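Lesson 9: reading folded outputs for more than one chain in a single document. The general rule is that every protein is listed as its sequence immediately followed by its structure tokens, and records are never interleaved. Here is the first one.
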Amino acid sequence: MSFRRVVALSGGVGGARFLDGLARALPAESLTAVVNTGDDFVHLGLHVCPDLDTVMYTLAALGDEERGWGLTGETFAALEMVRRYCGPDWFALGDRDLATHLLRTEAMRGGETLTTITARLCGALGIEARVLPMADGPCRTMIETVAQGTLPFQDWFVRHRAKPAVRAVRFEGRPSPAPGVVEALDASDLVLIGPSNPYVSIDPILALDGIRAALSRKPVVAVSPIVGGRAVKGPLGAMIPELTGAPPTAGAIARHYGALLRGLVVEHGDEREAFGVAIRATGTIMKSRDERRRLAEDTLAFAAELVP
């Protein structure tokens, strides 16, 4: 079976790289990305959308492959001056990256929605896939820590390097899904969840009104972000035992998404667990753009086997 309309839920570096593979494996008009905005925040007066920006830069082949975020060949002269002025330098804004935040902030102050702005920025970068923020209104991810109280996500993740142990994750704000999000899900043949952190990259999307109901009517396949008991990138490997008391395994990802999933793609060797859902083992670590495309193709082929 070939899928005419695919929606991918995305957040973080792994999600963006998987989207890049999908964009190369599918016709441009077939793919819609719904991107987490729970980690958006205002810094130095600028509206910063880390996950949206990572998706845009990755799809436009402009992202820094080694860091996983920001632009390749970036400079940080403005940040150096912020540091010299003793300003808040804990969040690294690159010089060219600043252009994205400046234009977005100016447009939002002029009354434009994040959806409209994102479409314009993607068009300017030559991105053919449709990229939607999950919501136009704020839905802030808050991390309840054991020792330092509740921290906004970026404070916990960047300023504190995700070191404070996590007690719970919650979201402030209940915006409606952005225009086109539910409609894209309703029109889709398949929904994919990238190898993103489920707690802070995907759950903010799932928390929006109508999203879980829309997903319950569609085949949903996820890619595990856990490989051999470790997170491929980021703090997920510590968050799973902190939040559930269970070890960080691909099975923990399947249990987290539960009845939403029709299938789960895991790394070779991780299929030995008991999942209670259909499993496909393949190589899930994406070290190159070719590996991203191969993972996307393997995931689509697996999904085709699950859909009547």
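And here is the second record, again sequence then tokens.
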Amino acid sequence: MDSPFMEHVARGLVRNGLRVVRFEFPYMRERRRAGTRRPPDPGNVLRRAWHEVVELLGGTGDLVIGGKSLGGRIASMVADAVGARGLVCLGYPFHPPGKPDVLRTAHLRDLRTPTLVVQGTRDTLGSREEIEAYGLPQRIRVVFLEDGDHSFKPRVKSGRTERQNLEAAIEAVTGFVQGL
């Protein structure tokens, strides 16, 4: 929750007038405490963590939930159930690394919560070409960041900078939330 990526995005959203609350899944808290890497918790534990955070915040009301990669994926699985006003996924993992035929999109077809996905065009977990072929529902808006990877970092030869892509992501999220 305090990676340079998350720090930059959170500060940018706050700068734009949005309230941001960050949390860690149990496996990430344990990584921090023990100083060792461990795999993510089972899906039910991750979904329960989202429910607990929403409850701690007093319920949804005007709450827009989301996250980076796995955090956004799990948020997409609970958004309807918690009554979120909106959903933001930064670098959604549409498929596991190196397995573009193992899609993580089935639940997205029935998702009712207005959704914004911000994705790098070169994201190895879902490139622009792959995503455009998925036939996602129109209520899921996808904003592509030119030459960005899974963390939105472009190649030097693209002429873009990581900061430009992060700022573009912040502006896309701000506009989406303000438009809800």
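What the second record shows: The chain has one domain: 4-178.
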